[in-house]
Specification:
mainly alpha, Protein Binding, DinI Protein, Chain A, 6 helices, 2 domains
Length: 371
C-alpha cells in the first residue's frame, strides 16, 4: 500500500497532538507543509473530531482529568496540620473574646457616663435659660404694666381736662335755664315743659360728649396696651429663639467635647486591650514552640512523601494515556487507510491547504468507527 504512506505519517504527527489536553507535556514538533503533486486525488480528515468519536475516547478524557487533578494537587500543597496551631489559636480566640467582652463593657459604661453627663449639662443649661427667660418675661411685664399705667394716667388727666372744658362749655347755658325756671319763673305749663326739655337736652349732650371721650380714651388705652403687649411678646419670642439656638449650640459643643474625650479614652482602652492580647499571644507561642517545631517537621516529611506518591501516579497515568492514544490513533489510521484504498484516494490530509481542494472524508471515517 505505497499510496497510503503519506496518510499514515500525517496522522501519526497530528493525531497525537490532538488527543492531548491543553497544558499537557508535549515535545514540540515541526509541522511541515505537505506537498501534493498536481492531478492527485486528495481527501481531508478532521482527526481531532474522529478521535473524539472513538469508543475509547471517554477513557482518554477521564485520564486527562485525573492528570489535571494531579497537577493541581502538585501545585497546591496541603495546609499545615492544625493540631497545635488550632489549640493555640483556640486559646487565643477565647482570651480575645474575654478581653473584647471586657472592652465592650467598658465602652458601654463610658458611653453611659458621658450621656448622663451630657444630660446633666443640658438640664443645667435649660434651667439657666429658663430662669433667664423668666426674668426677661417679668421685666417685660413690669415695663408693660408701668407703660400702660403711665399712659392710662395721661389719658385720665386728658379726659379730666376735657370734662372740665365740656362742663365750662355747658355751665352757663344750663345755669341760665335753671335760673330762669327757679327765679324768673314760667308763664305757662307749656313753657315749663319746653324749658325742662332744653335743660335735659343740654345735660344729655354734655354727658354724651364726656362719655364719647371716655370711650375713645378706653379704645386708645386698649390699643396702646395691645401694641405694647405685641412688642413685649415679640421681644420674648426673639429671646426664646435665641435661647434655643444658644442651647443647641452649647449642647452640640459639649457633645463634641465629650465625644472627643470618649474617643481618647476608648483609644487608650483599645491600646491596653491589644497590649494584653499580644502579651498573652507571646506567652502561648513561647509555650508551644517545641510542639510547633515537631508538627512542622512531621508536616515537611509528609509533604515529601505526598509529592513522591503524586509524581509516581502522574508517571503511571501519563504512560497509560500514551498507550491509549496509540490505540485510538492506530484505529483511526486503519480506518483512514482502508477508506482511502476503497475510494481510490492518492493522498489523505489532516488539514486543508490554501492551494489545494480536497474532499472531506471525516463523516465517512466516523461512520466506519461507529460500526
Amino acid at each position: 500500500m505505497p499510496r497510503l504512506l503519506p496518510v499514515l505519517v500525517l496522522l501519526a504527527a497530528l493525531g497525537a497532538a490532538g488527543c492531548r489536553p491543553p497544558g499537557a507535556a508535549v515535545r514540540p514538533q515541526p509541522k511541515p507543509t505537505p506537498t501534493v503533486r498536481p492531478g492527485l486525488r486528495v481527501g481531508v480528515v478532521d482527526v481531532d473530531r474522529v478521535a473524539r468519536a472513538h469508543p475509547r475516547w471517554p477513557e482518554l478524557d477521564a485520564l486527562n482529568r485525573k492528570l489535571a487533578d494531579l497537577e493541581v494537587q502538585l501545585a497546591v500543597p496541603p495546609q499545615a496540620p492544625p493540631l497545635v496551631a488550632d489549640r493555640l489559636e483556640s486559646q487565643l480566640r477565647a482570651q480575645a473574646k474575654q478581653l473584647e467582652a471586657e472592652f465592650q463593657a467598658e465602652m458601654a459604661s463610658l458611653r453611659e457616663r458621658q450621656e448622663a453627663a451630657l444630660e446633666r449639662y443640658a438640664a443645667s443649661l435649660q434651667g439657666e435659660q429658663t430662669a433667664k427667660l423668666d426674668r426677661l418675661r417679668a421685666q417685660a411685664e413690669a415695663e408693660l404694666k408701668q407703660a400702660v399705667e403711665a399712659r392710662a394716667a395721661e389719658l385720665r388727666a386728658e379726659l379730666r381736662r376735657y370734662e372740665a372744658e365740656v362742663l365750662d362749655e355747658y355751665r352757663f347755658p344750663i345755669a341760665n335755664l335753671r335760673l330762669k325756671a327757679a327765679v324768673i319763673g314760667v308763664a305757662s305749663e307749656e313753657e315749663l315743659r319746653q324749658l325742662t326739655g332744653e335743660l335735659e337736652r343740654l345735660l344729655n349732650e354734655r354727658d354724651a360728649k364726656v362719655r364719647a371721650r371716655a370711650e375713645l380714651v378706653e379704645v386708645i388705652l386698649r390699643d396702646f396696651e395691645k401694641a405694647r403687649v405685641a412688642e413685649a411678646n415679640g421681644r420674648l419670642a426673639r429671646a426664646q429663639r435665641e435661647a434655643e439656638r444658644e442651647f443647641a449650640r452649647l449642647v452640640a459643643a459639649k457633645r463634641q467635647e465629650l465625644e472627643a474625650e470618649t474617643r481618647r479614652l476608648l483609644a487608650a482602652r483599645r491600646r491596653a486591650f491589644e497590649a494584653r492580647l499580644e502579651a498573652f499571644r507571646r506567652r502561648l507561642l513561647s509555650l508551644g514552640e517545641s510542639q510547633l517545631a515537631a508538627a512542622q517537621s512531621r508536616y515537611a516529611e509528609g509533604l515529601r512523601e505526598r509529592e513522591q506518591q503524586l509524581l509516581a501516579e502522574r508517571q503511571a497515568l501519563t504512560e497509560q494515556r500514551a498507550r491509549l492514544e496509540d490505540v485510538i490513533l492506530s484505529d483511526v489510521k486503519i480506518e483512514v487507510a482502508a477508506l482511502a484504498a476503497a475510494r481510490g484516494f492518492d493522498v489523505v490530509l489532516t488539514r486543508y491547504l490554501s492551494n489545494l481542494t480536497g474532499e472531506d472524508l471525516t463523516a465517512a471515517v466516523l461512520g466506519r468507527l461507529k460500526r
